[in-house]
Amino acid sequence: MDFSVVVEYFPRLLEGAWVSFQLVILSVVLGGVFALPIALARISPIAWVRAIPFAYIFFFRGTPLLVQIFLVYYGASQFEVVRESIFWPILEEPFWCAIIAFTLNTSAYTAEIFRGAIQAIPQGEVEACKVVGMSKVQMYRRVLLPRAFGIVLPAYGNEIILMLKGSALASTITILDLTGMARTIIARTYTPMEIFLAAGAIYLVISIVIIALFRQIELRQNRYLGTLSIKVPEKG
Amino acid sequence: MSKTPALELINIHKRFGDVDVLKGISLKAYDGDVISILGSSGSGKSTFLRCINLLENPTKGEIVFNGSKLDLVQGDSDLVANNMKQLTQMRQQIGFVFQSFNLWPHMTILQNVMEGPLNVLKRPKKEVAEYAEHLLRKVGIAEKKDMYPNQLSGGQQQRVAIARTLAMDPQVILFDEPTSALDPELVGEVLGVMRNLAEEGRTMLIVTHEMNFAREVSSDVVFLHQGVVEEKGTPDQVFGSPKSERCKAFISSAF
After folding, report:
1. How many angstroms separate the CA of residue A151 from the nearest CA in chain B?
2. Molecular function (GO) terms listed (chain B) (predicted)?
3. Chain A residues interacting with chain B (CB cutoff of 8 angstroms)
4. Taking CB atoms and an 8 Å cut-off, how many pairs form between chains A and B?
5. Is the entire prediction scored with pTM above 0.95?
6. DSSP H helices in A43-171
7. Where do the domains of chain A lie, and which CATH numbers do they carry?
């Protein structure tokens, strides 16, 4: 194996990594913003309000991300209405097609994570809000959302890492993200082992950064829970 | 007495599925009354207390607070509040202390006590902070104000929960088995705080298993059995010469 190609093409790989990073950050932020109202609708007491996010989540969790990307990228352009609409400048860009597919996908997963977190808050804490006469809005703002944020962190960090790895699928629609860039380099140098190893290593580094970041936020956010490690009693 | 009761419950019924938990309970509490509600488990005493501020929706009945009737309409199976604003305003004036404390774990002790007056009643922060510290001193826990609930013992948490309730300046305070979740050696400190409140002339409804406490502190005692008021009267009547056989058996088993 000849790792000099890695050194030579390393700046190009970093360019690709930067594209991957943008894809993940943008879709995670947008997905998070959409996820909150979806999650709140999902636990609505009104049946038809619950039904809409249920169908949305059902579709985006039940179909492959790759299919969703193709639907947006190849599917949308079939329709003349779309091509003539003001959204075409966005929809003709593979980058934005990927962002749209990723955002829709991650918002469905994230909404489920949020929903679980809100429902995991002990009923007694909610009753404590009721008996001081809080309104629904005050309840969410002061207790439910801050509490849910603490509960959600481990699962949400996991979702971001899944998104990072899922972002490699963007390479299938001509985007030169880290995976796309690696494949382009390999087409020129015929060194799949070296370049894919290097790309994998870069993904790993980004994952470690995300994990460390979430670990810190978690420690800070959940400091009120006291010790985070479960102590196993010693024998005897 | 001709003045209006602070709180009046009229013919409260509660049904869970096929089970009639409350079968028509009425109760009046005047300002300064300390009413203990006794009964074996399953008698419906906690359910009754929770119906008062609609933590549980009664199936039938009326709730009158300070002479104004709570606006209730028929829901799917139970009565529900017709006017959320009226309900939240009533809740702001009726304190509730839970068996399991239910402090908000993400807030410090001081923040827990300040939350209601500051963000619900919208009182000025400085005033609220001073009052909260005063109340924490009163329940003997001022030095822990910057700690989180999980760092406190059960008895300490319950005292904080009482301070949190007092911070709202409630007209009536409901206690739902406030010492039942505590280790025996911690019960005394909570009862001590409650005894002081009773002596201050606060209006209190207390669901409890602490017979001695109920006998010494209450102005009235109500004994519930299978969803109805089986015996009612002053502590001396109920503990000294109960008329009902069930009440007699319950009290003799407790002492």
Report:
1. 11
2. ATP binding
3. 122, 124-125, 127-128, 130-135, 138, 142-143, 146-147, 150, 223-226
4. 68
5. no
6. 47-62, 65-70, 80-84, 88-91, 94-120, 123-131, 136-139, 145-166
7. 4-230 (1.10.3720.10)
